[in-house]
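just leaving the lab so this will be short. what follows is a protein written twice so to speak, once as letters and once as structure tokens for the fold. can you read through it and tell me how you think this chain folds. thanks a lot i owe you, the record is right below.

___
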Amino acid sequence: MKEITYEEKRKRAEESIQKKFHKQLFSPFAKACKTYKLIEDGDHIAVCISGGKDSMLMAKLFQEIKRHRQKEFELTFLVMDPGYHSENRALIESNAGTLGIPITIFESTIFDTVDTIEKSPCYLCARMRRGYLYSKAKELGCNKIALGHHYDDVIETILMGMIHGAQIQTMMPKLHSTNFEGMELIRPMYLVREADICAWRDYNDLHFLQCACHFTDTCSTCHEDGTTPSKRLETKKLIAELKKTNPFIESNIFRSVENVNVDTVIEYKKKGVRYNFLDEY
């Protein structure tokens, strides 16, 4: 059997985005960019690649949308090495080479710092990652960073906030940075389903990092086989169970934060100020 070359694998991955998975991947990507005004003329976007399936596909979708020339913008494919095992970094570099993604790699010491933290290391790691990415992106002349959170991340976050955080909030499609003036965070995968990302990955026989950290073997947020008590995994399973009797459960959760009726909310916060329905009763 003839071995597939890197060039053939890249072409197959790109053609599958343009044809077989156009409706499932490119269309919702382009729709999110247009609906939420994520890409504007003159933008220089740092496409942040962790090495997982979501960010790698996001990079390819950015290349595809740039090819359409609807907007004039620049891309930098930014990879932060926070202390990966050598084989994990090699896998990222190999996949980027295979897929034709010209990555810029910079290093940080986040894993060494997080290693000493017992409580919520993943939360701290995520916060530190974002700060490093903003800083490096700004240094490279970018005005936006793009992260690969998808539709399923959004609805899981909404439900987790209600169940575990006693609050109604969502993962926003874009945000102004509070610490890096003039910088924005955008999430162009906002309307893309995780199952479709997995289907594209498997169709092209691609193998990405399961988790972008060196705790992969033990991290409670990285396993989907039911062996760990991750709150996100619990929420994912809950949604799947609810879907058995309500096929619209996912879209209903997503749309719930688009249809908030403030007249029926007891209290809410806006820009840090808390309001109570009794204020205007």
Residues 216-228 have pLDDT under 50 and may be disordered. The chain is about 45% helix and 10% strand. The domain at 6-223 is CATH 3.40.50.620 (Rossmann fold). Strands lie at 44-48, 74-81, 103-107, 144-146, 174-176, 184-186, 267-270, 273-276.
